[in-house]
Write a structure and sequence with these properties.
Elements: H1 2-14, H2 17-43, H3 49-52, H4 62-67, H5 71-74, H6 82-103, H7 108-129, H8 143-156, E1 161-164, E2 167-170, H9 171-184, H10 191-212, H11 218-232, H12 243-280, H13 287-297
Antiparallel strand pairs: 1-2
Length: about 300
């Protein structure tokens, strides 16, 4: 089990941000299915999703949103239906590769997150100011973030040819068709999803326009990530200097200082003795001077 976890960590660390988004979405889907099974066995026959959903899906009700504000972020990685996640991940994978080619790998995550946040906020806003929305269903899915990626790259290289089934079309046509589908099916029962898609569309379009004017919104995103990650980084431990160790070092320094001073005095005495020998001869030295001369010569 540990080796499997280590392999997943290694693969995730090596992956680009597109693949990491895919891994996160698929991983969360698998975890939700496991949790759904476990919760279903405990509180059956109640639908297990009713117990899980309030903590991960974005509510339209402002009071519920105030209680669970993190759902503005979590909802964009949540899918309850296999075909829902399949379509989102296929679109993200194929068009995300084009995004990376023309806009770079490190911009795809900010665009995805910005699109998801904009879509979620627009969903909550319209559901609380418009009398047309009486059914308060929560919002889930990566579609808003995916639409931001799709429209961003379609704005960047609109004339790029891409193969759609058996036809080759321009990239702007793909994005245009997806937006038209949202508008045409606005009242089909997934109104909240279509609203979020349009929020993602707006982010993708204005992101590239800002980029063309020299303003890269992804810089602010990565600056925030670095500041947050810096809070949780381990600080280097300060080395404790114990008094005993300090006293020993001071003692050694003092001894060395005295030895150096003594060595200087001995050399001065030796010079005086040598001058006396030069002037008066060795025989004129005292016994103490001869002993000093002998000891000094042994050093």
């Amino acid at each position: 089990m540990a080796s499997i976890v280590d392999s997943i960590k290694t693969e995730f660390g090596r992956a680009n941000w597109l693949n990491r988004l895919l891994y996160i979405n698929v991983g969360v889907f698998i975890l939700i299915m496991i949790a759904r099974l476990v919760v279903g066995l405990i509180i059956a026959p109640q639908d297990p999703l009713l117990a899980i959903r309030p903590f991960i899906a974005l509510p339209s009700d402002l009071r519920e949103f105030a209680i669970h504000p993190w759902t503005l972020f979590t909802y964009m990685f949540v899918h309850f239906d296999f075909f829902h996640i399949l379509m989102n991940m296929l679109m993200l994978y194929f068009l995300g590769r084009i995004f990376i080619e023309f806009l770079g790998d490190k911009r795809i995550l900010p665009v995805y997150i910005y699109g998801g946040i904009a879509g979620g906020l627009l969903f909550v806003l319209l559901y609380n100011i418009s009398p047309a929305f009486t059914v308060k269903n929560p919002l889930i899915g990566a579609s808003a973030g995916v639409m931001a990626v799709v429209v961003a790259i379609a704005t960047k290289v609109p004339q790029l040819p891409v193969r759609l089934l058996f036809f080759e079309v321009k990239l702007w046509m793909v994005a245009g068709i997806l937006v038209l589908i949202d508008l045409a099916n606005f009242w089909d029962g997934n109104t909240g999803g279509h609203i979020a898609h349009l929020g993602g569309v707006a982010v993708g379009y204005f992101y590239v326009r800002a980029l063309e004017n020299g303003r890269d919104w992804s810089n602010g995103f990565w600056n925030l990530i670095r500041r947050v990650s810096g809070i949780f980084e381990r600080k280097p431990k300060l080395r404790t200097v114990h008094k005993k160790s300090y006293d020993k070092r001071e003692s050694r320094r003092s001894t060395a200082s005295r030895a150096a001073q003594s060595g200087g005095n001995d050399q001065k005495r030796m010079d005086e003795i040598l001058d006396k020998i030069k002037d008066h001869g060795y025989d004129k030295l005292s016994k103490e001077e001869k002993d000093f001369l002998f000891q000094f010569s042994k050093k």
